[in-house]
Amino acid sequence: MDNPRRLRPASWLVAAGRPSRPGEPLNTPLVLASNYLRGEARAYARSDGTPTWEVLEAIVGGLEGGQAVAFASGMAAVAAVFELLPQGARVVLPESCYQGVTNLALAGAARGRWRVRQISLEDTEAWVKAAAEAELLWLETPSNPLLRLADLEAICAAARLRGVWVAVDNTFATPLNQQPLALGASFSVQSATKLIGGHSDLLAGVVSVRDEALLQALRQVRELNGAVPGALEAFLAARGARTLALRLERAQHNAQVLAERLEQHPRVARVHYPGLPSHPQHALARRSLKGFGTIVAFELRGGVERAEALCARVQLIRHATSLGGVESSLERRAAIPGQEHLPPTLIRLSVGIEDVEDLWADLEAALA
Ligand SMILES: *Cc1c(COP(=O)(O)O)cnc(C)c1O
User: Which of 60, 93, 144, 200 should be mutated for ligand 1, with most atoms under 8 A from CB?
Assistant: First the structure.
């Protein structure tokens, strides 16, 4: 769906993807269909989609400044991008990013499907050089869980000169804080499970592109591999997206307040948040992000037991994995199998939309 009235993002989120003919429901209903009567454009949902998926695609695609294809999960969206690579392609990956993406890339490399090189997200010069010897640069910025940033503008410019694909996992920023396609990235990927859905009640993923050939290629991969979004999940993700601007604004305000207070707390050794002047890439964050996001990571003084105790003692904040819901949650990331390389006391806090004073009181009590 195009945006002839040039609606700003918060209005687009509310208005996009709605029916327009008089007498139709204001919201596209939850359409439960695999099969359609012969003769119309649609025949079968896996190949031709459903009206319910298309609402989610219209909302997210428009927000990213491109066109979107929705998938069954964030990882299905990621896998669809990798699937487009020619045999033996050279992929460059951040040293630290979402573990599912690293695992997928390394598993494919082990099977000989592609080759993977990992470089530090902050090392812009290395990424610019890598553009000369790769088919895909995979970026995740800000990254999960260390909140490192990539200089998208510089890296996309270098990749464009060489015709190299840049894919950006834009889950932490959301298209409200960062628009990779406008900077020249070929793909922007969302785990809609997180902030887009926003209520921890669904799995979905979305890839947005500007290039028509890539759009068709992604649709074909979805049809062939069958990682289609569930009808209810797409409906709920679109419903969640309607309030994304409000939720993001509130949650990232809360995150900034909590990050600043945590940094002053005697039990806290280090806080990772792009909105803090102490963040090593704060200048880049200010230049490249409209907001600093809803995820704060922090390391505790003392041992792992302190971090475990914090997880056990929070009450309003829930001890849970995943992120991006209206409810605040936290966990010790190095406790996750495969994540032992992370700082042992690193807590990843996903900040929700509660009253920030209640969140702080909960954290303070659990830290005491
Ligand atoms: C959660 C997440 C994913 C994977 O999304 P799923 O919906 O869980 O498959 C990918 N990238 C990032 C940054 C994530 O946080």
Answer: 144
